[in-house]
Sequence to fold (666 residues):
Amino acid sequence: MNTITDGAPAPILEVRHLSKWYGKGDSRFQALDDVSLSIVAGETLAIVGKSGSGKSTLMHILALLDSGDAGTVLIDGADSTGLSRRAINRLRNRRFGFVFQQFFLTPGSSVLENVILPLKIAGVPSGERRRRGLAALRQFDLADKAANNATDLSGGQKQRVVLTRAIVGEPDVIFADEPTGNLDSVTGAVVEDELFVLNRDRGVTLVIVTHDEALAARCARQIHVSDGRLVDTAVAAA
Amino acid sequence: MNPLDLIRTAASNTVRSKLRTTLTVLALFVGAFTLTLTTALGAGVSDYVTTQVASLGSNDVFLISKASASAGGSGPQKFDPETSSPSSGTANPLTGSAGALTPADITTLKGIRGLTGVTPISPVSIDWIATSTSDKYQLAIAPTSSIARADLAAGSQLDASSRAHQLVIPDSYVKPLGLGTAQSAIGTTVSLGITDVLGGTHQVTATIVGISNASILSSGAGANASLVAELARDQKAGSKALDRYQVAVAHFNPHSSASAINDLKQRIGAHGMSAQTIAYQLGVVQTVITGITGVLDAFAIVALLAAAFGIVNTLLMSVQERTREVGLMKAMGMSNGRVFALFSLEAAFIGLLGSVIGVIAAMLVGLPLNAALAAGPLSGLQGLHLLLFQPASLVGVVVVIVVIAFLAGTLPARRAARKTPIDALRYE
Fold:
């Protein structure tokens, strides 16, 4: 299933025959087993599976936070294996945004400081950082909270700050790992809405890891991971 | 992250955990404080000694004394009325020798090539000094004063070639003698009383040409050659007893090389006398002082090493606490090098805080202490600033501590840099 209709879109992310093992000796187990997957630009993809199924590992490898033991990861059709660490850092900084179940907001710093962290890492001058950070906060109606201490906010506000941080660098892909896992259903729904608005209005590709079937259902495509393998939707449901 | 942002972020991170940073800064503070005071002490004392050395001037003068009796060979020396001299028992503070020189020795010295202006220093002991209106006060005349340069508070140095009787007196005599100020005392004529070997008393008049500061290296008044000769003549009272001198001075070519000076010393030594330059004798004093301040510095360094472990501990805790933050920054594309730099800079910043506060505190304590000491217990040593704060050494202390802190920070910084983003983000 593909939401992109204009011609044959090139996959922005692709994995081929990806395998990953953890541990050594007797405790060695296979986290991912021959996974192949391609994601096109502008797509919304849910990676669904039980805890320990390997879904987070798959997302980490897609986001170049981790690497597989076998198989290849392609970014815009190019093999990422040969990329230098510097190039990978740059890629993650410029093109990926991250939302995790935990907020990972820096305590004692302001909301704005937290939001502009990716820009700071990218080396954007401080005036421009501030301007872009405030513009992003305005989109989420958080501009009045810019000077507040980030850890003093409510859970929903925190996750929206995290979303702001994820989009401030205008990434192509947002990786979200259980983005609503720590939120009650009402605030969770608000955050979900905002994620899909980003996809609709800006064409940001969403890769969402979740065990929440309702959230997964809002994505255009779902893949199910079980024991490190991609399984057919119907099989997983059975 | 650009370098300025790195420094700013590191600085703001240090103040995030206030109590922990404060305690670490305190440890460094103690080290910086101690190191500043010990280096200031060393600088102050050695500066004073250097001034004193300069005040003693003459770098072309040997002080020659009799080598002590037992040093000449093994066992007691045979008595010879022409050359033997009774040991006085009191060591000359400058030469350390207890023997006395005879006229024969002086003749020998005059015969040594390379020595010029050999002058025996006559021991003169006067009874009192007084002006026409004052009471009589005891006064000692330093035997080598005629060749030394006094550390003057007022007036001028003694003129060795003058026929007039010249006197330099310590400034503690100015008030008792009713001379007003050091400045107004210059040019005053005073009387000196002396008792000769037969018990007769004599009076000699002399003019005050200088007022000297109290000093650790020269004590008593100074008299020029003409006055000393006059006093010695009176003291001897026409006695036929052979002259005995504690010490003789001789000049040598000031451009002589060290080996030439050594050679001269050995030739003098061959005649049972020992010769030393003034610089050498003061060098011994300086070596002792350098040794003492070195030990004090070592204590300060030990304090700093302890503080360095404090930094390692603080930052390790900090790295542990901020594992997820580090993971997030790395996930967002921050390089290992930048993470390393961030934590190392944080350590350096802690070092900067501790050292600057320590140096400032040391100065705030040291300067009033200096003034109090100079006015109180050390008032006898004029011109001594016990603690001398030199800008270069203050900067040096700060730099040393920042470097130590930075090095201590590299261990935790390495640990932070090596965290993988995944493990760091999973960390609970």
Residues 1-5, 234-238 of chain A have pLDDT under 50 and may be disordered. The interface with chain B takes residues 60, 63, 65-66, 85-86, 89-94, 98, 100, 102, 104, 106-109, 117-118, 120-123, 126 of chain A (CB under 8 Å). Strands of chain A lie at 11-22, 29-40, 44-49, 70-75, 78-79, 96-99, 173-177, 205-210, 221-226, 229-231. Residues 185-202 of chain A form the longest helix (18 residues).
